[in-house]
Specification:
The protein has 444 residues and is α/β, with parallel strands linked by helices. The chain has 16 helices and 13 strands. α5 packs parallel to α6, α9 packs across α10 and α13 packs across α14.
Length: 444
């Protein structure tokens, strides 16, 4: 099919000519094999000035009529402009808080810190931003001309939870492939509760990804992982929302954990579009934080962002970014070059300490966000981030999805945790004097 003039299209990220309809089940360029991007019509978007776009987006918010109340669909012209309202599948995604965190920042060595709480969404992670777009597009395709029997993904937990929730809302069958024993119980129960077909495989994430890609290539399923560019269209709105929350300015740095690296590419795409259309005047720098157990992007950074070489991912508390062969690596490398990016590699000791320090300062970071917070601590310590620079850390999931991790932080039982920071319930008799004494002891 030939896409309609002026509509968003799927286009080769490596520059091959031509495009494909945005609702087609295609994930890579048939000519060169490169990943596809959603390409918007610059002439159509350019009909509004930057000031007009800012005014339009500011006129939409949580109190707007559905679906404009969504943080994603309130920016629908930049996401999937050809989608009818009746096909939108929204669960209230976006509009997550941007929280000043000076006390946590001081503990990390950089007081000018804000945290974007992307984990306070419906399924508890930023993945909702992409799934609302992808599942809405599939709903439209199925209504118009049918489609694959199910939507499927490989997942370390959060992707499967978001996909299952949105598929359940749309009434579309869902299958998720999980690496056995590498997903937290709270994350595992989410797709089960939503009725997804959960397949627990005796492999790691990269092994699950290889199988789901093969299933998508043969047409058995529609692929929901971040190599699908529709996911990134939703996720890029976090950059626009962040600038909007800062009165249409941007911080000096944005730190985020990196696993499959789709979020890195999406973040840069959102900022770049906002700059090109005149809503902001510059791009922030981006720092991707990787676990030392799975850090192929860090090795690429050390070589000047040369091509990424996959690695065998090892064990880490940050299970959601335990990915050695990220599918969105080419997109992320281009994004980091454009944003003067940086990559930090974080060990388990540093992860544990950052989690403990920030929890004692009121945050409740998931292990992946703890990696990003530890990365900030490292970058500030070596002067890569200057004291007067403003930093935003993207908290990618809610800490309640990682109860075992949070208990280990409180008990001081994570690798590298200090032995004298254990905090466990104190068993006392139900007597006023004993309770009073314990409170005074703690306050002292």
């Amino acid at each position: 099919m030939t896409p309609e003039p002026g509509a968003a299209v799927l286009a080769c990220s490596a520059g091959c000519a031509g495009g494909f309809p945005v609702f087609e089940a295609i994930y890579a360029c048939p000519r060169c094999g490169a990943l596809l991007d959603v390409r918007h019509d610059p002439a159509a978007l350019g009909r509004r000035s930057g000031a007009e776009w800012r005014a339009l987006f500011d006129s939409r918010g949580p109190a707007s009529a559905w679906p404009l109340a969504s943080g994603v669909w309130g920016k629908r012209e930049w996401v999937l402009p050809g989608l009818p309202d009746g096909d939108v599948v929204s669960l209230g995604e976006g509009w997550t808080s941007l929280v000043p965190a000076p006390r946590a920042g001081a503990a990390l060595g950089h007081e000018r810190l804000r945290v974007k709480q992307c984990g306070t969404s419906h399924s508890g992670s930023f993945k909702d931003l992409g799934m609302t777009v992808l599942v809405s597009a599939v709903r439209h395709r199925r209504r118009e001309r049918g489609g694959p029997a199910a939507i499927a993904c490989a997942s370390t937990g959060d992707t499967s939870a978001a996909l299952a929730a949105y598929c359940a809302a749309a009434g579309i069958p869902c299958a998720v492939l999980l690496p056995r024993g590498l997903v937290s119980p709270a994350q595992l129960v989410q797709p089960l509760a939503h009725g997804a077909r959960v397949l627990s495989l005796s492999t790691d994430f990269d092994g699950c990804m290889g199988i789901v890609k093969a299933l998508a290539a043969e047409g058995t399923v529609y692929l929901a992982n971040s190599m699908n560019p529709l996911r990134l269209e939703g996720q890029k709105t976090v950059a626009v929302e962040l600038a909007q929350q800062l009165s249409w300015t941007v911080p000096d740095w944005v730190f985020l954990p990196g696993g499959n690296l789709g979020n890195t590419a999406a973040l840069c795409a959102g900022f770049t579009l906002a700059r090109d259309l005149g809503l902001i005047d510059r791009l922030p720098r981006i720092c991707v934080a990787q676990s030392a157990a799975a850090s192929p992007l860090y090795e690429s950074f050390r070589r000047g962002f040369s091509s990424l070489t996959p690695v065998a991912a090892g064990p880490t508390a940050a299970t959601a970014i335990r990915i050695g062969d990220p599918v969105s690596a080419p997109r992320a490398l281009r994004a980091l070059r454009a944003c003067d990016g940086r990559v930090e590699e974080v060990g388990e000791r540093a992860l544990a300490e950052a989690a403990r320090l920030c929890a004692r300062a009121g945050l409740y970071p998931c292990p992946q966000t703890a990696v990003a917070l530890a990365a900030l601590r490292q970058a500030a310590a070596v002067g890569a981030v200057l004291p007067d620079e403003e930093v935003v850390v993207l908290a990618t999931a809610h800490g309640l999805k990682f109860t075992e991790f949070e208990l280990a932080v409180a008990r001081g039982s994570l690798p590298g945790a200090q032995e004298d920071v254990e905090n466990v319930p104190i068993e006392l008799p139900a007597e006023l004097a004993a309770v009073r004494a314990a409170i005074h002891e703690g306050a002292g």
